[in-house]
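TICKET: design request
STATUS: open
ATTACHED STRUCTURE:
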């Protein structure tokens, strides 16, 4: 499997670090987004429950 040509090509340390940091940033961003979405859903559910009673 050869890396595509461009800034991330080659097995240089900089390319590996850039790829790893981008990957970890994606993971963190995704988990934060999920937490916010869950919080929004929970608060909406609580508001609906109050309205129904």
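STATUS: resolved
RESOLUTION: sequence designed for all positions
ATTACHED SEQUENCE:
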């Amino acid at each position: 499997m050869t890396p595509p040509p461009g800034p991330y090509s080659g097995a240089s340390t900089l390319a590996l670090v850039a790829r790893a940091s981008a990957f970890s940033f994606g993971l963190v961003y995704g988990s934060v987004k999920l937490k916010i979405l869950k919080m929004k859903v929970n608060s909406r559910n609580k508001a609906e429950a109050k309205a129904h009673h």
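CLOSING REMARK: DSSP finds one helix and no strands in the chain. Residues 11 and 50 are 57 Å apart (CA to CA).
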